[in-house]
Hints:
Protein name: Methyltransferase small domain-containing protein
Shape: globular
Order of helices and strands: EEEHEHHEHEHEEHEHEHEEHEHHEHE
Region (Disordered): 1-20
Keywords: Methyltransferase, Transferase
Radius of gyration: 23 Å
Domain Methyltransferase small: 185-301
Strand order of the largest sheet: 11-10-9-12-13-15-14
GO molecular function: nucleic acid binding; protein-glutamine N-methyltransferase activity
Amino acid sequence: MSTVRWTEDHTTRSARWRSENAAPVPGRVVVADDRMKADTAYRLAREGTALLWRGDYHNGRQLLRAMGRRAGDGPAGDFEQHRQARGRRARVLGKLLVLLEDDHSLSLRRAPDVRLACTQAYGPPHEPVVVALSELLGVLGAHQWRVKGVPVPALDARVHPHYGVFSPVRGEYVDLVAQAPLPGLGTAFDLGTGTGVLAAVLARRGFERVVATDISPRALDCARENVRRLGLDGRVEIVGPALYPEGRADLVVCNPPWLPARPSSALEQGVYDEDGAMLRGFLEGLPARLRPGGEGWLVLSDLAEHLGLRTRRELLEAFTAAGLRVVDRIDTVPRHPRARDTADPLHAARQAEVTSLWRLSTWSSSSTSPAGPGR
Length: 375
């Protein structure tokens, strides 16, 4: 971590800089309080000046919202322009900073106790750190998800996501895995397990052994905790960081990030998969990891197709190139609120979105044409 320096009460002060988005250390920092107007704050932030907030906590949140309204969300329909606008917006909002003391406490009027949430996200405190207020709010929101959990009807239980781990709030993909016909009940692999929700669903469906993987240490810790909560730690093994575990399986499930675009931070890796690397790794490695008669289940939204990031033909060609055929495809439509939000710049694509479970097997299992169910 780099060091942030600023002048306060005629004294030069410093603290470590922390950014989960890998934002550069602010070069110029001024102290701001309740007297700061939103227009002034937005102008300074756009010019590259960071604002260390020393006013009331709730007033700081209001100022952040006001800056966000001025930044906007970018044009509707165009994904690249939308992402660029969102990136600029995030950089501007990331200029409003707060200081966490050496015990992770926040010394602002009416500030909540953020120590546990910050410890869960960042680890034990060692020294004062400066973070963006927008990031801190994300940490606090993640803490609430972790405490309350996310209801998963397929498990009749809650799953508790950790900070930086993709939350299973979009339940349609979980329901697909919970309802698709099984090729057998021996061993299953869950690649990119995240919270461990799909591994838990597979164990509850009767698999004798489930091995779940992830490349994120946060996800591995999260999955292990959820598996213990659900009483499945005797049947579900969490391993990694890796894509594939050792051995072969009757079923290999993969729900990769749905958009083949470059993530701007580690927190976006659950949504963006640069150049479709995880998707390709799953497909190319699948034939060697399936037992005879086994299947690979690819759970994938077609949102990338509606946004012009990938075509259906490219996806089908990737199946063929990997030596795989399509046994079946089970479709569902999204139920999340954003699909109905007409104010969303990407509303047209989200409204048309379909999430599919592609049942894949090797050509040696059958002579069925790969073009049939995939069309």
